Amino acid sequence: MRDGGAPISNYVVEQRDAHRPGWVPVSESVSRPIFKFDRLTEGDEYVFRVAATNRYGTGDYLQSEIVMCKSSKSIPGPPGRPIVFDVSRDGMTVAWEPPDEDGGLEVSGYIIERKEVRSDRWIRANKNPVTMTRYRSTDLIEGLEYEHRVTAINARGVGKPSLLSKPAVATDPVDPPGSPQNPRVTDTTKSSVSLAWSPPDEEGGAKVTGYLIEMQKVGSVTWMKCNATPSLICEYTLTRMPQGEEFKFRIMACNAGGPGEPAEVPGVVTITEMLDPPSYDLEAKYKDVLVVRSRGVIRLSVPIKGKPTPTCKWTKDGSEVTNRAMIASSEDVSELVIKLAERSDSGLYHLHLENKCGKKMLPIKVKVIGRPSAPEGPLRFDDIQAHSVKVSWKPPTEDGGSEIVGYIVERREETKAAWYTVDSRVVDTSLVVKGLQENAEYHFKVTAENQFGISNSLKSETTIVPKTPICVPEASGTPPEIMDVTKNSAALAWTKPKDDGGSCITGYYIEYKEVSSDKWIRHETKITSTMYTLSQLTTDSEYQFRVIAVNDIGASEPGPASDSVICKDPFDKPSQPGEIDTMTVTKDYITINWEAPACDGGKPVLGYWIEYRKSGESAWKKCNKERTKDKQYTQGGLQEATEYEFRVFAENETELADHAEQQLASKLNWVVSMV
Asked: Whole-angstrom Cα distance, residue 177 to residue 324?
């Protein structure tokens, strides 16, 4: 270190936040090369620097690395994993080991928490920290499964929680399990015995944790334990047994409540070689037909049994198997393998088992599946449109021994080398290929597929060019709409057909018929719009109409017929007025009145006409020369003691209504009104 040729007089010390610019002077008169910074914030990061000063000035600064400000004391680490014991219906005891790291301070207590296994919510079990390393967790709900964790505390705060305890169910101590089921001997040799059994029907309220085996020599009353550690599976083999001796065996199931009642193996077991006729365990895949893909591997693996170990021989269809077959047999399995299987390897295979106790024969049917042949051609192309074409073919003559699951249809443009898959799962022998470009040239190919592969492709012999076919238009899909009707005409409107047949619509013909007739009559005029008024119809006749579209190729089929309509004006004559009544009767005149008609015929009633005649006469005479709007009328000039009849007509813009008649008798000597 250089002093610049003059003694160091003091040091300048500065600090700054590690993540912010700007140095903060702390002291400019530090006399010794050591300094303590204070008033720092715990957890923040800082950078410090110092420079020496002599009488000529201040030198370069020496800067520190980033330093985090933290205490030498910290919170404690997690305690050991809690152990749960002494479980009851409403409580269980939790014990744990102190944390390996106390943070440099004495652990002052522990917090115990619990939760249900299926819940994420932790509940504090103790209100105040406990100083011991065990705690009785109470107020539990019977039948629920709980987990516990423990957190240590020191003067710096609360540490991290421990690992979770093993789940424990809040329940009272359980009973031992019942006795195992079906205890039996599975094998014996000159020096061993193999036993097997099934789990007990009753577990005693807790899971079975293992099984204990005991044996008793014939003639003795003492039962001896065979295994110090309970067997976790339902089988056990005792070795180093004395040859020729006789023993009895029994098995006990164990749970948290202890060992249960024993189940004794029936009879006496002699330690000697077991004699058993040949048998086998056949996998489900061999019980029907074993399907193997061509060029694949035929593997027939059969677990076998028998004492002594049976001899094994494989045959196919009653003869020797192919010399390509590899056969390997042991005391518990026999296996036949044929690689690169061919269709000729299909057939019925037999496994022959034999020992001195008997014989056994096992049949296995094998079917070798290959790829199908290509679909039968040639490819046929129908219904060629501007953007689509229907492609058809025949099924392959050889399906490869497996059902054809579908066909793959591909297309390629003449100018391109890549094939594009149109559909990879076509179940029929035809497909409408859409999305083509008009006037472009295409090649097509079809490939058959079964569950084990795809065939060679059937390709089109020539290119196909999609183009718009020209034909007569499509018939309209909707009937013409009747816009208006009069007594001798009907106004119609209709929509253009969706398909013009590739040629513009040049016009339309209208056909009509009376509902009572089956004969359609074509209107001679060719109509160029989609609206037309058909005239010269018969009044009060009921008609139906239909439209035929025409292009340069010809006329379409007739479209659907319209609803029927009756040719009449849209309004009618009014109904007859209401009942006529007399108001006043004298010797030479009478006053009558009436009600307005119930229906005005769709047009306002303009007025009324009144007629009268003498009783017995046929001719009617008009009472009023001009139409009257009033609904009463006085007729004078009548003869005394003569009987008269009156009638009234209502009139609108259409015509007169039916008349209303009323026969009235009036005499000259009547001086009051008659009702």
From this structure: 56
What spatial distance separates the first Cα and last Cα of the chain, rounded to whole Å? 147
pLDDT tens for residues 373-385? 899 989 999 888 8
Distance of CA 570 to the CA centre of its chain: 57
Asked if 530 and 571 touch (Cβ cutoff 8 Å), the reply is no
Q: 313 to each of 99, 310, 317, 329, 364, how far by Cα in Å?
A: 67, 10, 13, 9, 13
Token duo for residue 67: 């330093």
pTM of the model: 0.32
Q: Is the pLDDT of residue 663 over 50?
A: no
Domains, the chain, with CATH or none:
10-68 (2.60.40.10), 83-169 (2.60.40.10), 181-274 (2.60.40.10), 277-369 (2.60.40.10), 376-459 (2.60.40.10), 481-566 (2.60.40.10), 581-666 (2.60.40.10)
Phi/psi region, residue 28 (left: phi>0; alpha: psi -120 to 50; beta: rest), is alpha
φ, ψ of residue 573 to 5 degrees: the values are -70, 155
The model's pLDDT over 399-448, given as tens digits with 9 standing for 90+, comes to 887 889 999 999 999 999 999 999 999 999 999 999 999 889 999 999 99
Q: Give DSSP secondary structure letters for 213-232.
A: EEEEETT----EES-SSPBS
Rounded to an integer, what distance in angstroms lies between the CA atom of residue 583 and that of residue 589?
11
Distance from chain centroid for Cα 401: 35
Q: What is the largest CA-CA distance in the chain?
A: 166
CA distance 107 to 104: 9
Q: According to the model, what pLDDT value does residue 140 have?
A: 93
**Is residue 562 pLDDT above 70, yes or no?**
yes
Phi, psi of 105, rounded to the nearest 5 degrees: -130, 155
Are the C-beta atoms of 479 and 529 separated by less than 8 Å? no
Residues 6+ apart with CB under 8 A from 667: 587, 640, 641, 642
